[in-house]
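Morning run. Coffee first, then this:
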Amino acid sequence: HQKVIISDRTLVFFGTGNFTNYGLTQDHNGYIEFTLEEKNLDSFISLLENTYSNPILKNKKMFFMTSPKDGRRIQSQILREIQYSTTSIHYLIFDHFDPIISHSLKEASSRGVEVIGVYDSPTDEEGKYLKDSFYGFLSGIYRDGNEDKNETDSFPEGGLLHHKTMIIDKKKVLTGSYNYSSSARDSNKEIFMQIEDTGFVNEFENEFQRIKNKAYREIPEKFFTNKLNLNTSIENKTDEVCFSDLLLSPTTIKLGEGIFRTLLYYPTNPENHCITKKYFHIVSSNFSYPKSNSFLDLNEFWNNINIFERNSEKVYKNINREEDSIFQKKLPINFIQISFFDLTGTNIIFQTNRNDIEFKKITLFFPGDILYYATLSKYSAEQNEVLYGNVALGSNYKKTGIAFIELPDETLFFCFQKNGDSNKNAIEEFLSEWTVFQSFSKNMEIQKPSCVFY
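And here it is:
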């Protein structure tokens, strides 16, 4: 589904449209031409082929990601930009079947952000949902007016709004071949690009206004005024969460903060005031994959959940919230290099050049297991200063995992991998998510960290 031409291995032409007569002359699309930096010639091709070692590539001011290899990273980045928006979200979309993106757009409108979407005609179900779900009159949904279609045996051609473009705060453009759907995320070969550049933004904002001015507003039957925040008692069980209140519509559950922020969509009403944790829809975001042997297995990950009714303004919050978990803190998470590591029956032992982590709490995450905790101490062995913590793991406990070290103003992490053991899916997901998160935060391509072997 990618739409890319590379000429002489340096000049790239790509966009939202197919390279057909209709795609180039009659459909609403956006195309971009740019020159690859010499260092990125091979990297860009391997990125398109989904074989690039890093989940993200930066070329000049442009960040690129592709699916299906890093489709979840694309979805997470779109959700982050929506979450961090402050003034406006303008988007043009051909296909929108992602209720998690819809939830985030609804939440943005509740903060006073102007959210305006223009859809290919007829408007998708998620667009129809949003027209009746925004807060106030500022936001709205439009149906494209470019309807000169030629029906064929396979697919309508000509007159389509074929964009997959979002403009955030009139400062950033997110575009490419990626529609808002689980098939774009998990199945198709797609390309996604994000750029923060005044010239690009102005061109795309002009295109948005041109299309919107010829579109038809979908008239809302209702709208919300204010969120209704409600406290509820939540019982966090092994396989389900139960509420004192009965939820009356499909729900979105938010878990974690920062890099751990995960949105789970439950399309059916819960029964007996309870939701089975792993019955969420496949379109759910971030650490919803893998369903087993992941952060979702941890009760600590579910402690501070927020529950949003899809068809109302109600938001339920746990009255028994716990703020101490690493999953709930909004501190920066930074990688530290480890030069030596080992697990014994009762100790974790490692060596690093950081000198500020003695007596700090360390949390060990092993996919499919509980969390283990220890306090770090120092000792000298063979003239080398080593950090260790007492952890009751058992004499033959040799597994792949992640260690988190909590400091007052940041959380540090490193991953460790048993020799001969393949990297667990949950750990690979975390490393890729962290890499993309950091790359956009620092406006540079960060390389995905490697685990220390032992």
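The helical segments are 21-25, 41-48, 71-84, 99-110, 125-131, 182-186, 198-213, 425-442. Good start to the day.
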